[in-house]
Amino acid sequence: MAPPLAFQPRSDAPLTKARSLVYLRHRRRDLDAALRFYTDFGLELAARSERALHLRALGGGPPGLDPVAGPHDEFVGLAVEAESELALHRLAAASGGAVEERREPGGGLVLRLRDPAGLRVEVVHGVEAAPVREPPAPVPFNTYDRPARINAPRPAVLGPAWVQRLGHVVLGRQEFGRNARWYIDTLGLIATDVEVLSELGDPIVAFLRFDLGGTPADHHSIVVAAAPEDGYLHAAFESADVDAIGAGAEWLEQRGWVKSWGIGRHVLGSQLFCYHVDPHGFEVEHYVDGDMFDASHPTGYHEAGLPDLYLWGPLLPPHFVDTSITPARLARVIRGLRTREGFTLKRLLATKRLYSKPPRPWAGRRFVRPRPR
């Protein structure tokens, strides 16, 4: 597909080149419920205060999820790693911000920015991390010509999935172009793939990866997607293998939590995925086997739509891409149409029409068993 003229997938002179996604910050009315879910999901408690949890992947690293106490359940920020202390100070000078000492577990330095939608984006350096831990050794896999597991049944034990690290976050934005440009121009991210609304020729989803030069980076670490309202769509954590995802999903359901969608295989990014809903209504994903690219890889352009969201898997549930209009959403849409130049009714309606189409018209049919004759 031809690239849209108005979209530039990378910046020739970004303010900085961030290196990784470090943590996500949420507010939660019930920290105990958040702790129960995310430890069942596969995170561990690194530290706790009266008003905050600091949750880390089993694979080590810094805390990757920080729920803090608050009157509402909401996503309030993300953090990325600066490539050096000097780069952090240069970004502060260019953006008019100030570098401060970070007074949370792991310490280090922090520069607090806001993206165009008002989300807090913290750029950090020197955050102390727990040593990286390797996942459990994989169970040998038998094939018909190379049996590797003899006289040894596969373990039949359920438990939380092994979570290696925080992988990505997906953000919905009324002003898609302005927000995608901010992450590209300010933090130096590169668009790996862009989905285009064919009816208008407008880009509406950008899968952004960090520019690590010749070192491979995840297909996407931050995704910006056109949406009727600004907000968090989901976050994803890399697991050990597909059996960890499957057994972890069964464990979560056994513990009373809700599976949202999966297991399946994405198209863009290629990940095997399984999504769950935390007790406050936020989507969170286990994934494995994602694509990786170095900075030389060119941007791909694709027609947007639900069919290409996944190659195979259970039928996409209606709640996963919510096109309904509630009174609260309608109020935010009207406010956005009045106040935001990059948010138009024409694009909003065209996007709603696109995502209201069934992803698999042939799937979900009522099954009637044929009778032998």
The low-confidence runs, each spanning 5 or more residues with pLDDT under 50, are none
Terminal CA distance? 50 Å
Could you give the count of β-strands? Answer: 20
Q: Which percent band covers the strand fraction?
A: 25-35%
Order of helices and strands: EHEEEEHEEEEHEEEEEHEEEEEEHH
The main sheet comes to:
10 strands, mixed
Output the radius of gyration.
21 Å
Could you name the key traits of this structure?
19% helix; alpha+beta; 8-stranded mixed beta sheet; 34% strand; 10-stranded mixed beta sheet; 6 helices; 373 residues; 20 strands
Explained architecture:
The protein is α+β, with helices and mostly antiparallel strands and 373 residues long. The protein has helices at 31-41, 85-95, 176-187, 242-254, 327-339, 345-355, and strands spanning 20-28, 43-48, 53-57, 60-69, 74-81, 99-101, 109-114, 120-125, 163-173, 190-197, 202-209, 217-218, 222-226, 231-239, 258-266, 272-277, 283-288, 292-293, 300-303, 310-312. Strands 19-10-11-13-9-14-17-16-15-20 form a ten-stranded mixed β-sheet. It has an eight-stranded mixed β-sheet with strand order 2-3-4-1-5-8-7-6. Strand 10 and strand 11 (202-209) form a beta hairpin. The mean pLDDT is 95.
What can be said about this structure in brief?
This protein is of the alpha+beta class. It is built from 6 helices and 20 strands. The protein is 19% helix and 34% strand.
Write the layout of secondary structure elements.
Layout: E1 20-28, H1 31-41, E2 43-48, E3 53-57, E4 60-69, E5 74-81, H2 85-95, E6 99-101, E7 109-114, E8 120-125, E9 163-173, H3 176-187, E10 190-197, E11 202-209, E12 217-218, E13 222-226, E14 231-239, H4 242-254, E15 258-266, E16 272-277, E17 283-288, E18 292-293, E19 300-303, E20 310-312, H5 327-339, H6 345-355
Parallel strand pairs: 1-4, 5-8, 9-13, 10-19, 14-17
Antiparallel strand pairs: 1-5, 2-3, 3-4, 6-7, 7-8, 9-14, 10-11, 11-13, 12-18, 15-16, 15-20, 16-17
